[in-house]
Amino acid sequence: MDIRHLRTFVTVARMGSVTKAAEALHITQPAVSGQLKSLEEALELKLLSRTTSSVALTQAGQDLLLQAERALDAFGDFLHHAKARRGQVSGQLRIGVAMYDPAMLRVGPLMRRVTQDYPGLRVDMQVGRISWFHDALRSSEIDGAISVCRSAMPGIDELVLRDMVFELVIPSAWHDRLDPDPLEALSRLPWIRMSPRSAHHAMMQEILQTLGMRPVETVEADHEAVIHALVAAEVGIGLLRSDLAQASEEAGTIRRLPAYNAAARLSFIYPTERRNDPAMGALLNTLTKIWRD
């Protein structure tokens, strides 16, 4: 029995699909099936019940899945400590980065420290929409992402970097339109639509539910600089993180409505199965230092 067989079994069990597991493991579907067969023959147990479109755990598979996950964790810890003892961490990580101010994300200090402490580790960064990160992580297009989160995702670990508050903002020229009834005025004004499957969308929906309204929405956006520009140009009401909203109000480009807000968190998210990967461990360690400092 090979440790790869356990990793394949756990991946298939989590994803419920041989096809998706093959994509995540970067091997062929026949190779996945072959490894599962070898594992079942070695254990003399049937772990998975397969159909043409999906797989399901047998009772034996359900009983052994947790043990398999613990075995993989232990093996990962062993490799991590062995490589750390040699002072060597190498490999490549593809990291998604949310479309936010890089200075706020501390991307510069992060990469400076990574290159200094782990010269053998290559990190490729790709700026993307938050809604894309979910699929990209599951399909292994990226290995992790610096993202804004509202809720946990199955099979995804999260390192929280900071808490965030987002506020409704309006064009400065529209402030007088809120009198005498702000809620009635807000319901008549145009709003910027937040991208679906994003933290912005979830927060906006929470605010709208609190206000009890379904406003007229205009253009869709999830890039904070674009949202700011659209609000300043009187395209519609938008949602910005509170520190940026405050700075923009002081500059006279927008007006804040701080009473209407929602919370989120800036996090680094990555597949649970990568928890004990040495390269991922090095990046997590560096992120923790940068945000602790």
Short account of what is shown:
This protein has 293 residues and is α/β, with parallel strands linked by helices. The protein has helices spanning 3-15, 18-25, 29-43, 59-86, 102-105, 107-117, 130-138, 182-188, 199-211, 224-232, 242-250, 278-292; strands at 48-50, 55-57, 91-98, 121-128, 144-149, 156-171, 191-194, 217-221, 238-241, 254-271.
Describe the structure in your own words.
InterPro entries: HTH-type_LysR_regulators, LysR_HTH_N, LysR_subst-bd, WH-like_DNA-bd_sf, WH_DNA-bd_sf. Belongs to the LysR transcriptional regulatory family. Residues 1-58 form the HTH lysR-type domain. Keywords: DNA-binding, Transcription, Transcription regulation. Helix 1 (3-15) packs across helix 2, helix 1 packs across helix 3 and helix 6 crosses helix 12. The protein is elongated. The protein has two domains: 3-85, Orthogonal Bundle (Arc Repressor Mutant, subunit A); 91-293, D-Maltodextrin-Binding Protein, domain 2. The protein is an alpha/beta fold. It is built from twelve helices and ten strands. The mean pLDDT is 88. Strands 4-3-5-10-6-9 form a six-stranded mixed β-sheet, with helices on both faces. It starts with a helix and ends with a helix.
What is the element layout, followed by pairings?
Elements: H1 3-15, H2 18-25, H3 29-43, E1 48-50, E2 55-57, H4 59-86, E3 91-98, H5 102-105, H6 107-117, E4 121-128, H7 130-138, E5 144-149, E6 156-171, H8 182-188, E7 191-194, H9 199-211, E8 217-221, H10 224-232, E9 238-241, H11 242-250, E10 254-271, H12 278-292
Parallel strand pairs: 3-4, 3-5, 7-8
Antiparallel strand pairs: 1-2, 5-10, 6-9, 6-10
